[in-house]
């Protein structure tokens, strides 16, 4: 089985992030705190509670190199936490937002971080040595609606952001003094490089491939979009799939993507030799049962009413609970984080969801997927 | 200027309606030959090239409605229909369900059940979220 461990750490988890050595995990249990758990001899112990935000924390990222945690919350603030001796000390970052912060991510070099907000803007924050504080620069070009997800290109300059207006926009975040000037790519801060208008519904979960050549993001219309050769003439592909929409994706290699979402089971997508992306399979078993019971008792009752048949007596799914939908997660999975890298491939990753579980997955046991990874 | 644009729009719509009339003759002949699946495929083809014009949409709907009502073997029809037509068929089914007319609704509901089995909930979601290409 691809699942190596299931940890029920809270009733509901909004986001999570791992420390560099993967011994500690920081998560938000759907309130205004960050709980940090450490794995001590097979049991998870809550070692720290970070309390500073006033409202729910929508994004956490833990810098692997700098060991700093950045949190973004609906209270329109962001804090950068430093570990001093054994206490996490927060530093407020004034984002100058008038709406909630929805997502946050450290840049690859961890000298900047990007925050997406409900104020339709993306803020880029960097550390100013002279004044010993984090400065936030707003990208002037606004989306038409809330920014749901941000992702950094490996070059530390470009950032992709998705929004509920259906568009994915890629901005340059070149900051004088922080980034090295690249004569090949002259760009100003906040310049809109590409605007991708592939979806007519909300978009989430944008990620770059390890080389930065391909971009993937999902729409709320159960479609996943892949864009190759991001630039003046991108090649876009829509992959339509049969189930409920996804919320987040992860590139496990240049040619394979894992998507997670409302169907509670990760879905694997891969590109073949011609570069055409398609759905491969689910990770973990999905019960192949007859039409009525596959959706669980609530769904089949609803469908039964819809089709005017008494489905209650016909099938025995009144006994089955949500287990028929996902084997491991019982509710929507809303984030997927890599755990270990081998070169540019990710073999192990973790998912967290609204059911309060953090599940660790390992692709080592999935032979057919490993073969696809290698090519 | 605006008047000229409206002229062009109307011409476009007229051209589309003429095309739909041709299609409908072809469909009638297919139905007479007891080929309802072929008829449905012909009806669904080219619907994406439609404008936002209400008359075109209605004309298209009339043609598709005719073929939907002629389907007797739903399973057979779905197994021979290309997956690329699932989304557009789902949109027309919902339009049928919205009419409130008993025989249309019965037929659409029957097809909806099987189509959902085949195409999954994603198909329904694509109908719900697509506010640009409506039928």
UniProtKB/TrEMBL annotation, chain B:
<dbReference type="GO" id="GO:0042995">
    <property type="term" value="C:cell projection"/>
</dbReference>
<keyword id="KW-0966">Cell projection</keyword>
<comment type="similarity">
    <text>Belongs to the ARPC5 family.</text>
</comment>
<keyword id="KW-0206">Cytoskeleton</keyword>
<keyword id="KW-0963">Cytoplasm</keyword>
<dbReference type="InterPro" id="IPR006789">
    <property type="entry name" value="ARPC5"/>
</dbReference>
<protein>
    <recommendedName>
        <fullName>Actin-related protein 2/3 complex subunit 5</fullName>
    </recommendedName>
</protein>
<comment type="function">
    <text>Functions as component of the Arp2/3 complex which is involved in regulation of actin polymerization and together with an activating nucleation-promoting factor (NPF) mediates the formation of branched actin networks. Arp2/3 complex plays a critical role in the control of cell morphogenesis via the modulation of cell polarity development.</text>
</comment>
<dbReference type="InterPro" id="IPR036743">
    <property type="entry name" value="ARPC5_sf"/>
</dbReference>
<dbReference type="GO" id="GO:0030833">
    <property type="term" value="P:regulation of actin filament polymerization"/>
</dbReference>
<comment type="subunit">
    <text>Component of the Arp2/3 complex composed of ARP2, ARP3, ARPC1/p41-ARC, ARPC2/p34-ARC, ARPC3/p21-ARC, ARPC4/p20-ARC and ARPC5/p16-ARC.</text>
</comment>
<dbReference type="Pfam" id="PF04699">
    <property type="entry name" value="P16-Arc"/>
</dbReference>
<dbReference type="GO" id="GO:0034314">
    <property type="term" value="P:Arp2/3 complex-mediated actin nucleation"/>
</dbReference>
<dbReference type="GO" id="GO:0005885">
    <property type="term" value="C:Arp2/3 protein complex"/>
</dbReference>
<comment type="function">
    <text>Functions as a component of the Arp2/3 complex which is involved in regulation of actin polymerization and together with an activating nucleation-promoting factor (NPF) mediates the formation of branched actin networks. Arp2/3 complex plays a critical role in the control of cell morphogenesis via the modulation of cell polarity development.</text>
</comment>
């Amino acid at each position: 089985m691809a699942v190596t461990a299931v940890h029920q750490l809270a009733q509901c988890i909004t986001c999570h992030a791992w420390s560099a050595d993967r011994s500690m995990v920081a998560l938000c249990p759907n309130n205004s705190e960050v709980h940090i758990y450490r794995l001590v001899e097979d049991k998870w112990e809550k070692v720290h509670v970070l309390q500073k935000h006033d409202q729910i924390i929508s994004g956490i990222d833990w810098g692997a190199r700098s060991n700093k945690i950045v949190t973004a919350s609906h209270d329109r603030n962001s804090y950068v936490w430093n570990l001093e001796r054994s206490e996490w000390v927060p530093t407020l970052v004034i984002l100058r937002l008038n709406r909630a912060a929805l997502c946050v991510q450290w840049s690859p070099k961890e000298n900047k971080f990007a925050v997406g907000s409900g104020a339709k803007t993306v803020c880029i924050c960097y550390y100013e040595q002279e004044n010993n504080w984090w400065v936030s620069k707003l990208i002037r070009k606004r989306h038409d609606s809330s920014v749901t997800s941000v992702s950094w290109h490996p070059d530390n300059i470009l950032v992709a952001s998705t929004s509920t207006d259906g568009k994915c926009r890629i901005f340059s975040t070149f900051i004088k003094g922080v980034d090295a000037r690249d004569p090949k790519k002259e760009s100003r801060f906040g310049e809109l490089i590409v605007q991708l208008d592939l979806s007519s519904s909300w978009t989430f979960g944008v990620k770059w491939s390890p080389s930065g050549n391909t971009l993937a993001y999902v729409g709320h219309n159960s479609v996943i979009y892949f864009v190759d050769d991001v630039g003046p003439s991108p090649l876009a592909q829509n992959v339509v799939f049969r189930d409920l929409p996804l919320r987040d994706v992860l590139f496990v290699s240049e040619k394979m993507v894992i998507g997670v979402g409302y169907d509670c089971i990760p879905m694997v997508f891969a590109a073949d030799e011609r570069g055409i992306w398609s759905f491969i399979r689910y990770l973990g078993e999905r019960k192949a049962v007859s039409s009525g019971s596959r959706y669980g008792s609530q769904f089949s009752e609803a469908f039964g009413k819809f089709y005017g048949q008494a489905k209650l007596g016909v099938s025995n799914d009144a006994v089955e609970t949500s287990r028929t939908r996902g084997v491991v997660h019982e509710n929507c999975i809303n984030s997927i984080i890599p755990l270990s890298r081998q070169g540019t491939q990710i073999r192990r990753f973790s998912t967290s969801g609204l059911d309060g579980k953090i599940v660790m997955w390992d692709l080592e046991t999935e032979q057919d997927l490993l073969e696809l990874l290698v090519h | 200027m605006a008047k000229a644009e409206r002229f062009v729009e109307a011409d476009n719509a007229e051209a589309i309606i003429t095309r739909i009339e041709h299609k409908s003759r072809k469909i009638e002949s297919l139905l007479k030959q007891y080929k309802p699946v072929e008829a449905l495929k012909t009806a669904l083809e080219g619907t994406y090239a439609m404008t936002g014009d209400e008359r075109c949409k209605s004309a298209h709907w009339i043609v598709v409605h005719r073929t939907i009502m002629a389907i007797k073997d739903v399973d057979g029809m779905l197994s021979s229909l290309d997956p690329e037509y699932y989304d557009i068929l789902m949109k027309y089914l919902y339009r049928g369900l919205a009419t409130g007319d008993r025989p249309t609704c019965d037929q659409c509901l029957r097809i909806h059940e099987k189509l959902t089995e085949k195409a999954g909930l994603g198909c329904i979601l694509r109908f719900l979220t697509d506010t640009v290409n409506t039928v």
